[in-house]
What does this fold into?
Amino acid sequence: MWRLARARTVVRFSRFKRYSSTIRELQDAFRDPASPYHIPEGSRGPASPDEQLITLSPAEEGHAYFEDRGFDPTSFWEQPIAWGDHDAFQHVNNVRYVRFFESGRIRWISSVGEELGGPGRADAFLRARGISFILKSIEVNFRRPVQYPDTLLIAHKPALEPEPKRARTQFLLHGRAFSYAQRAIVADSTSVITWYDYEKLAKCDPGDDHWAPILGRIR
It folds into this structure.
């Protein structure tokens, strides 16, 4: 009986040594930059052996984040942070974000004009000729402080207002700001956009043709 127990102990110890050796070999492979199993410092490995290890740049990660959540790629705007964007608290002043979201919104508005009638229609949208947009209101939520140096990726996507407020004269435009340095969302916004007839100086229902590119971008 004693010999049998001793034999089992030897077998278990032998298996443990082989297991420990395998673990050390894997750890060495993960640390070796020349190994296909290498995991760079600061990145995460795959959740399973079947998952391919993909290391994304901050810009690629930001684009993927927004595209996965239905944000309109035609609205993507890279906003470099300047030292002068700081305030006395040594982070980007809250007021700056309104301008950052404005730049992304103008990019998006231009793309809508392009879809409706090419460069000439896009130019008319921005120069307040005929039927275009006007900003009725904007709400900004600040989630993380941002410091220089950094670049923010700004993205927008349209949405219809919930009933019973929904109207043919306006819609919502949701925006978010993704920090390349932090790889995280640092601010988000919701704007109410109104269709506006600049000849009549009044809000309007622009008709189905004008609504089509907006509805086509709602995901």
